[in-house]
Q: What sequence folds into this?
């Protein structure tokens, strides 16, 4: 058991390694050895080669074992080699071979191509341009059961030549035939192919039986490389009663105008339903109109890459021939026609395609004198395709098609259309599907649309905004504005049933999702590849994207999410997909932001207020303020020395008898003693006998630098004290406003002061006073302040010490 497992494991490893190797060497799967002057298959081809091109060398022979080492070969091109012989075992090592091109060689006998026995997987086999005399396919062809495209060429084709491929269901059988062809009627009856291509190697191919068989056996017949023989073909076609072929192609042909028109007229009378010319060169073009068959079973006519070989001819005659064709679908594409005329009578054409021509704004119209006559004979046209022309003015175009009453589908992509918004557009009423992509239209285009429009493609224009005052497009369900210049999502007021809105590659920075509320029917939205700015404004949009990811979610499907949605700004998140961007709520929501900032602020303020209140900060502040003022005053205001003559005391103290205790026990010890060093005059202490109280007081005031009033309810009641104040206020004039100091012993609201004491009232209003604090802790500061207010240099203790 164990060795088996090990072996298995090793095998798995080996296979894995081989696969790795083949992956790494994938460029080697395609090897181009064309035009290398090789005379044999190279020996050093990489083993992995799948596509090998050995064309244009001189490999004369292919041998068994030439491809022994290239077992993965799928496509081999040995054309243009002068190859004469291929060994029957050549391809026994390349079972995967699908494409084998052996054209332009010198192989001789189609019955003898025995190497084909080993190429059972072939899809495409090209054996044209060899030296085959007869088309007799050997029995080896029976092994090509998967074959889809077979290309052959020989001089003679006879009955039973193809019986060995009767079992293959071919897509295309290509026969490259020269003009000396010997064709036996009915030879092609064994072939089962959808399309028969007959390429003329000489340019001229005249074989009635071949044409007859082609037209009666194959759905699609393509005649290639013809420069003549049209008369015979036309005759053949007109004589035949029964034609099986529905699609007839003429490719790479050179034809006279007369032959072409004759030929087309003949075909119009047959049962062929689709006629297609491509790579056609027309010569001998007409000067006058050519008649065209009036009635036909033909459904479509198309001309692709048509060129003219004449210079002098009537363009109108050429256009007239084509536009008057009685077909349902007319297409002339990749052809440099500059105008198209109007049919002579009401045309049965349902679909017109003039893609990639050179048509101008005058299309279908005719100028007569000063007037432009609009075409009225294309009333059945439902679909008009004018992609890639030279159209310039959308309003003119609306005039050109105004009588196409059945027009539903209009494609004007890839022109240079503009609309200036001045003149009214006159579209026919039934247009539902309009493509105006890749033009130069701006927002004014919304004024030039029809009401019934359902699908509107404005891709790759210059629309920067959808005007709010547009015509109501009540049936518009799909609006493509990819690659324009929009800066925000539009409002759907103008298109209430909009289902699909494409805004890829515009200039949307931060789509305002709320606008989508006006689009109740919106199912599909594409805003990919816009320059998103990943800031708060984008959050609702990111949310929309994430929501759309959920399959069960019934809302809007966001196309291209998440890979096509990435930030362009700010720099640090550039190219990050929106889905991976996280924009926190806090930074965006104003309310939350306010709360997060304001809350702490409020807390701090409240705390400060509480703390202030708790520790009487305002009182301290007031005290400090007073103290600094006092200091400042002391420094700046200098009293002239002569004014201080006779002044003995720093202060005279006036107080009510009721406050005597405080004055004696608190005030005086703090002012006079060693702590204060001030001299205080109390009228009872410095009382001079023999003088009246008034005289004593007057004396005291006169000898003091300042007057200190201890204010309390009692003081206010005392007339006496009022007088003292009166004197003091007079003296104040002499010694400056700082000569009066008020101490408020208890709160003394203004109303408690009788109105007659104007003096006191005004003084209390003017002077800032010192308040006696109840809190013991604050007393020290109070005293310091009071002392500072009273401090002054007095002349009496030695006079010489008075400043300076
Ligand atoms: C091609 O190869 C042949 C011999 O195989 C040689 O004679 C000839 O000169 C070569 N031609 C070129 C262009 O190399
Ligand atoms: C195949 O490969 C072997 C060894 O690499 C080499 O000797 C031999 O010539 C090669 N054969 C062919 C036909 O390339
Ligand atoms: C083989 O090469 C020739 C010449 O290079 C080229 O024309 C032809 O298309 C090639 N065949 C295939 C099947 O690619
Ligand atoms: C062609 O090949 C077949 C079978 O290999 C053979 O019978 C026949 O004689 C060959 N014909 C010619 C002309 O070589
Ligand atoms: C041979 O035919 C195939 C398929 O019909 C085609 O792709 C290829 O180009 C042809 N080879 C040449 C040299 O024309
Ligand atoms: C080819 O056909 C012609 C006329 O049908 C005939 O004369 C000729 O012998 C044929 N050639 C061959 C090789 O079958
Ligand atoms: C087309 O016909 C010309 C002759 O008119 C010829 O030289 C050319 O090889 C032909 N081309 C093909 C693909 O048959
Ligand atoms: C236009 O459309 C309406 C409704 O679809 C239809 O009844 C009417 O026949 C159409 N007009 C033409 C001219 O086709
Ligand atoms: C409208 O035109 C576009 C582009 O030609 C086409 O893909 C689409 O299917 C059309 N829609 C309708 C409803 O005809
Ligand atoms: C919108 O479509 C409905 C139903 O197809 C139709 O009846 C109506 O006329 C259309 N509206 C316009 C303005 O064409």
A:
């Amino acid at each position: 058991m164990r060795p088996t497992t090990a072996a298995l494991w090793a095998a798995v490893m080996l296979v894995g390694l081989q696969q790795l190797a083949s992956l790494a060497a994938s460029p080697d799967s395609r090897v181009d050895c064309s035009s290398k002057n090789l005379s044999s298959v190279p020996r050093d081809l990489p083993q992995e080669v799948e596509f090998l091109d050995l064309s244009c060398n001189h490999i004369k022979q292919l041998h068994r074992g030439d491809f022994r080492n290239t077992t993965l070969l799928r496509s081999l091109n040995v054309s243009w080699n002068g190859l004469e012989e291929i060994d029957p075992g050549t391809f026994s090592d390349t079972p995967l071979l699908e494409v084998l091109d052996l054209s332009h060689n010198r192989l001789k006998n189609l019955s003898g191509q025995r190497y084909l026995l080993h190429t059972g997987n072939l899809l495409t086999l090209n054996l044209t341009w060899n030296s085959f005399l007869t088309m007799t396919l050997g029995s080896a062809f029976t092994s090509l059961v998967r074959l889809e495209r077979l290309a052959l060429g020989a001089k003679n084709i006879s009955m039973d030549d193809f019986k060995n491929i009767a079992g293959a269901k071919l897509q295309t059988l290509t026969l490259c035939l020269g003009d000396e062809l010997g064709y036996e009627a009915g030879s092609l009856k064994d072939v089962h192919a959808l399309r028969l291509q007959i390429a003329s190697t000489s340019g001229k191919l005249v074989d009635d039986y071949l044409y007859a068989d082609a037209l009666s056996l194959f759905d699609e017949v393509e005649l290639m490389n013809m420069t003549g023989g049209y008369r015979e073909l036309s005759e053949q076609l007109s004589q035949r009663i029964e034609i099986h072929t529905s699609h007839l192609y003429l490719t790479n042909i050179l034809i006279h105008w007369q032959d072409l028109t004759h030929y087309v007229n003949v075909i119009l009378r047959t049962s062929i339903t689709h006629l297609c010319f491509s790579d056609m060169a027309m010569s001998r073009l007409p000067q006058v109109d050519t008649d065209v068959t009036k009635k036909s079973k033909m459904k479509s006519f198309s001309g692709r890459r048509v060129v003219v070989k004449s210079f002098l001819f009537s363009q109108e005659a050429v256009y007239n021939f084509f536009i008057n064709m009685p077909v349902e679908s007319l297409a002339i594409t990749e052809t440099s026609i500059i105008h198209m005329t109007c049919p002579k009578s009401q045309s049965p054409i349902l679909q017109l395609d003039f893609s990639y021509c050179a048509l101008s704004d005058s299309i279908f119209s005719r100028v007569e004198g000063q007037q432009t006559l609009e075409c009225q004979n294309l009333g059945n046209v439902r679909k008009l395709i004018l992609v890639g022309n030279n159209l310039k003015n959308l309003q003119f175009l609306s005039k050109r098609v105004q009588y196409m009453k059945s027009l539903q589908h209009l494609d004007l992509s890839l022109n240079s259309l503009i609309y200036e918004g001045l003149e009214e557009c006159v579209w026919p009423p039934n247009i539902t599907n309009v493509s105006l992509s890749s033009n130069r239209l701006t927002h004014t285009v919304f004024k030039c649309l029809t009401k019934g429009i359902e699908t509107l493609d404005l891709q790759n224009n210059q629309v920067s905004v959808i005007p709010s005052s547009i015509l109501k497009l009540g049936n518009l369900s799909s609006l493509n504005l990819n690659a324009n210049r929009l800066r925000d999502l539009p409002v759907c007021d103008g298109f209430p049933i909009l289902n699909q809105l494409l805004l890829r590659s515009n200039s949307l920075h931060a789509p305002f999702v709320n606008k989508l509320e006006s689009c109740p029917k919106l199912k599909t939205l594409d805003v990919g590849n816009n320059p998103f700015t990943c800031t708060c404004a984008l959050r609702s949009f990111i949310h929309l994207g994430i929501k759309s990811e959920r399959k069960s979610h019934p809302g809007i499907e966001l196309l291209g999410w998440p890979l096509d949605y990435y930030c362009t700004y700010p720099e640090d998140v550039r190219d990050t997909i929106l889905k991976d961007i996280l924009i926190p709520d806090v930074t965006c929501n104003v309310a939350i932001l306010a709360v997060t900032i304001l809350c702490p602020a409020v807390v701090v303020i409240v705390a400060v207020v509480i703390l202030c209140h708790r520790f009487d900060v305002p009182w301290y502040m007031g005290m400090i303020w007073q103290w600094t003022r006092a200091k400042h005053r002391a420094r700046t205001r200098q009293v002239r020395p002569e004014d201080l003559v006779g002044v003995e005391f720093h202060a005279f103290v006036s107080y009510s008898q009721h406050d005597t205790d405080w004055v004696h026990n608190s005030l005086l010890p703090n002012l006079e003693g060693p702590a204060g060093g001030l001299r205080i005059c109390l009228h009872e202490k410095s009382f001079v006998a023999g003088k009246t109280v008034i005289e004593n007081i007057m004396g005291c005031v006169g000898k003091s630098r300042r007057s200190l009033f201890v204010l309390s309810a009692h003081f206010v009641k005392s007339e006496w004290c009022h007088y003292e104040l009166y004197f003091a206020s007079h003296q104040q004039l002499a010694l400056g406003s700082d000569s009066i100091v008020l101490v408020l012993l208890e709160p003394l609201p203004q109303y408690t002061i009788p109105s007659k004491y104007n003096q006191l009232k005004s003084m209390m209003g003017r002077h800032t006073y010192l308040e006696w604090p109840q809190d013991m802790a604050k007393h020290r500061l109070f005293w310091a302040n009071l002392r500072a207010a009273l401090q002054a240099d007095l002349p009496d203790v030695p006079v010489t010490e008075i400043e300076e």
